[in-house]
């Protein structure tokens, strides 16, 4: 393992031999002295030149560390964070989680919640009315959340929602699907 006083500067090239015999070589992206965690950027295992693999290495589980080259460049400046955008995103996520928690407390089944999340991937205008899913204020899906439980005026919205429900029923629940 690395000596307790040893630090790794960003940009340095490091080679580590783990206790499992795996050799990891890469460029230091970050190092936390207290937790002895090292983040290494390595060439992509897929072979694509524009991609990289990133490893988090716990130095407590490393037999040997070798510095292949020290960085002579100062670390790049950190990019500025858009705090307003991050706050908005956090508030949206918290709101969605609270909505899901409320739905579960109302007795919505996990399948109903998963269907809601599936619909919400393509149609953001989705909300709960007790155990019913309301889509675009035009379509209501009631338990047990099947195609025949989709009600609304005949039109594109109803057809589209039924397609999503039909697709959802035909796929294993919980799988990640992109539309």
From TrEMBL:
Spans traversing the lipid bilayer: none
Domain AD: start-end pairs: 79-173
CDD domains (UniProt xref): LSm12_N (cd01735)
Lineage of the organism: Eukaryota, Metazoa, Chordata, Craniata, Vertebrata
InterPro entries hit by this protein: AD, Lsm12-like, LSM12_ABD, LSM12_LSM
Coiled-coil spans in chain: none
Native organism: Eptatretus burgeri (Inshore hagfish)
Protein name: LSM12 homolog b
